[in-house]
Write a structure and sequence with these properties.
The structure is a single chain. This protein is α/β, with parallel strands linked by helices. It folds into 2 domains: about 120 residues, Alpha-Beta Complex (Ribosomal Protein L22, Chain A), CATH 3.90.470.20; about 280 residues, Ribokinase (UDP-N-acetylmuramoyl-L-alanine:D-glutamate ligase, 3-Layer(aba) Sandwich). The protein contains 17 helices and 14 strands. The strands form 3 sheets. It has a 9-stranded mixed β-sheet, with helices on both faces. Strands 1-5-4 form a 3-stranded antiparallel β-sheet. The longest helix has 23 residues. It is elongated and about 80 Å long. About 5% of the residues have low confidence.
């Protein structure tokens, strides 16, 4: 079904409104104001922006009172083509539907048409049962994300935003390190340090020049000798959070790294991917943790943690997430359609963003890096997990709208993060 909204406004009416110095601040978003300021705030441009908001409100059926007007911005791309950029409640009202926009002017009037395909994300029953989030739901995830992302102090420095240690990557899985660390960097941690085998350093460092590196040298049998373990623990001691497991493999060195981090860390730890598989073999190691733990399994990994299968997990997702979080005193992020975040105290967040285009290798590495980055900045474990899950799905929806579910990649989601942060004012 096509969702269409149109609006026509007399430019003179907007000219009168602009005599109120607060009008533009109430109506225009930050990026919108910046573009119009470069052009001297032409009345016709402001009128077109107001028209676009009115047209969008008609397309989604809410009227202008249904969202903050600043969350529907009419922008011009470098090519000159107009773009309707949505954020906040306007983005939620769109429900994952991409909207195009057309703008016309005369000497007296501005006119805008916005249009979106409401079934853009609907898949066939044989392929998926995913549907966009209910358009009128202001998500808990969005509120949590907005509350935890504070404006940065003008007098701050990198040390004020945490130091994250990522113990990720192995020969054959350097990409996991690139994606997890890349996502962490994009989510604002002041310093991101990557501990990885020397053999893959050149590959990872060529993609991530902003990170700092601790190079580890396993011995030929795959284990990590004591001096290398001490090197890793020294890096952990100077960190404010740690991520372990993405692309780590299941070698003796990987086992030593995962268990050493869980047992020795005094800062919050995210355990992902191979880290979870290793924990599943020795589940009691979770009881040795001294700091908050966040585990991020997909249904197969959750099944291994519970000694069952993915199908059983999927049939009892909420029960499995709540029960494991309480029994093992961890934050449990059970990934999948409607990702769940459960706390030992019984809190539960059910995510509403995301789409089947995210179901590919590397998406989990991106999410783990995002959670860990927020942890490193001092955000509480449950909030960091839920906020990152929401933002991760939002980035996936943005990429699907732009690139299609088939064509999008996990690295595209990392690339979408700056625009999303800008749209929520951070």
């Amino acid at each position: 079904m096509l969702l269409v909204g149109t609006d026509l406004i007399e430019i003179g009416r907007i000219e009168k409104s602009m005599r109120n110095p607060r009008f533009c601040g109430r109506v225009l978003g930050g990026a919108e104001r910046a573009q119009l300021a470069l052009r001297g705030f032409p009345v016709s441009g402001v009128a077109a922006s107001f028209c676009a908001k009115e047209a969008f409100s008609k397309a989604v059926g809410t009227g202008l009172s249904g969202f903050d007007l600043r969350d529907a911005q009419l922008l011009r791309l470098p090519s000159g083509r107009p773009e309707l950029r949505l954020s906040g409640r306007a983005l939620r009202l769109a429900g994952g539907v991409p909207f195009s926009v057309s703008v016309t002017h005369t000497a007296r009037y501005a006119s805008v048409v916005v249009a979106g395909e409401s079934d853009f994300f609907q898949s066939s029953k044989s392929a998926s049962h995913w549907k966009p989030a209910a358009p009128h739901a202001e998500g808990e995830g969005l509120r949590m994300l907005q509350s935890m992302l504070r404006p940065r102090d003008a007098e701050s420095n990198k040390g004020d935003y945490g130091r994250l240690l990522c113990v990720c990557g192995s020969e054959g899985m350097a990409g996991a390190a690139v994606m997890s660390v890349g996502a962490a960097l994009r989510c604002g941690a002041g310093i991101v340090e990557e501990a990885l085998p020397r053999s893959i350093y050149a590959v990872v460092a060529s993609r991530l020049i902003e990170a700092v590196y601790t190079l580890l040298d396993p011995v030929p049998d795959g284990s990590l000798p004591p001096p290398e373990e001490e090197k890793l623990l020294a890096s952990l001691a100077r960190s404010s959070a740690c991520l372990v497991g993405c692309g780590l493999g299941r070698s003796p060195a990987a086992r030593s790294e995962v268990f050493g981090v869980i047992r020795r860390s005094t800062v919050p730890v995210v355990v992902d991917a191979d880290g979870i598989n290793l924990v599943a073999e020795h589940i009691d190691v979770l009881r040795e943790a001294k700091a908050p733990l966040i585990l991020t399994p997909h249904p197969g990994e959750m099944g291994r943690l519970l000694g069952t299968g993915a199908a059983e997990v999927q049939s009892r997702r909420e029960e499995c997430a709540r029960g494991f979080a309480k029994e093992h005193n961890v934050i449990l992020v059970l990934k999948g359609a409607g990702t769940l975040v459960a706390s030992p105290e019984g809190r539960l967040y059910r995510n509403t963003t995301g789409n089947p285009g995210m179901a590919r290798g590397g998406s989990g590495d991106v999410l783990a890096g995002m959670i860990a980055s927020f942890l490193a900045q001092g955000i509480g474990a449950f909030e960091a997990a839920a906020g990152a899950v929401y933002l991760h799905g939002l980035a996936g929806d943005r990429c699907a709208a732009r690139l299609s579910q088939y064509g999008m990649l996990p690295t595209d989601m990392i690339g979408a993060l700056p625009d999303l942060f800008r749209e929520i004012g951070r």
